[in-house]
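User: What would this chain look like folded?
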Amino acid sequence: MNAGQFEDVAMTIGITVLIGFMMFIIYDLAKRSKAGKFGMAVLFFALGLGMLGFIIKTVLVEVLDM
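Assistant: Here's the prediction, encoded as structure tokens.
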């Protein structure tokens, strides 16, 4: 495994862990603020859009590079 392959694998794992941790933070924020079901859905939707945009951008870059 060369340095480039290692960087690709490490970046994929790191971003996945970071997104998972951010989802936990959103969940914890909703629970601590007693947001309820609708409030939790709004938090996940609004704050999750940024993560979704990043994932879509990454997929588009990979598809367009082919």
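The chain is about 90% helix and 0% strand. If you want, I can go into more detail on any region.
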